[in-house]
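Quick bug: Osteoclast-stimulating factor 1 output formatted oddly.
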Amino acid sequence: MKMEGSTGGMPHRPAPPRPAPKPGRVKVVRALYKYTAQNPDELSFQEGDLLYVFDEVTDSNWWKARCGTETGLIPSNYVENHTEEMDCPLHEAARRGNLVFLRECLHQGVSGTGLDQTGSTPLYWASHGGHLHCVAELLNLPNPAVNAQNKVGETPLHVAASRGHYEVVETLLKQGADSRIPNKDGQTALELAMNPAVINSIQQSRSLHRTSITAMYNANDYADDSD
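Here's what came back:
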């Protein structure tokens, strides 16, 4: 039988359940205050440390997180009240060309092909800034989504070509970027390119593509009378 009035106040109303994080999603937060672990399985961290929260579901009160090379539990109410969440940290690293932070995010499990509010991937922003080392790092992922289009239909090749980033264009083409994809205005990467070297690179890529298709056919196979 439930006892009433034993606490001298209204019974605690449970908070609405949090939506389950998307599979593979890692929340990145920056600690605003120091926290000292109270038990061996908890995680200690300092003010300003980056925390990579990768399990909010197993225990709603204690989330699993990484800080540097250490992994442990942190109180969820502490995360909510004493940290600042970083939106799309990998996108920000790619946009700024911060290879060290980009690698750390990838190492800690942040999705390399996640989308921001514009529908763009980190590879798009690395290509936008002409950050070749970040582009190469993202292209090394198992599924780099090299031809992913954002909300305006642009691929990484579109933006690299339009901004004249020749080395990025060359790298994207070698990794399978399709120069024939139009954006929502019907423009291909070649049509957006202004740099002569970029234009030539895309044209050569198209020429090689046509040659490889032609090479699949042997004229001797079609030289008899039945044709």
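Actually, after a second look the formatting is fine. The beta strands are 27-31, 50-55, 62-67, 70-75, 83-85. Closing.
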